[in-house]
Predict the 3D structure of the following.
Amino acid sequence: MLSVLELPLDDPRVQPLLDELAVEYDTRYGDFFGPGSAEEELKRYPAHEFTAPHGALLILQENGQSVAGGAFRRYGSGTAEFKRIWTHSAHRRRGLARRVLAELEATASARGYSSVFLTTGPRQPEAKHLYLSTGYEPQFDVGADPETLKFLAFTKTLAPVVEDTVVAPGFGSASSAQPTDSLVELVETR
């Protein structure tokens, strides 16, 4: 059984996400963005940007273990920026990233955002394919050699909030939003 938790960045249950992201970035990119770039990227934004009312950090847990997660912050008026979308290496190919996206989208929509902006690196083809397959619009030439692009940017318009399917801001965390599961099932069946 998966649980969705909204947590602060300094919560110990978030650390597996940060640790494995640092290894993943270093392994895939090395010095592509410069020495020490993984650590620098993970510390780029202050923790408070990923908290309510303008942001969130969500962790999916299974049997008490953090298996996937992601976060968002305010990017602009009405636009959330999704960051740190991650699935633990031992739990990939199970649809968990789709679940994270659906939960982030529902939470961002409930907090008043109408669109999403996100970027991924050119050496993460599985992320590129995930975003394309879940309705994100590429803001780059998809036919270009990814190695010639520093970032792959995407945007998406969020579905409007339906009052009884998401948690209103300030009224609990995403983990208490049982109706969100129907949204996830709808997304995962496509």
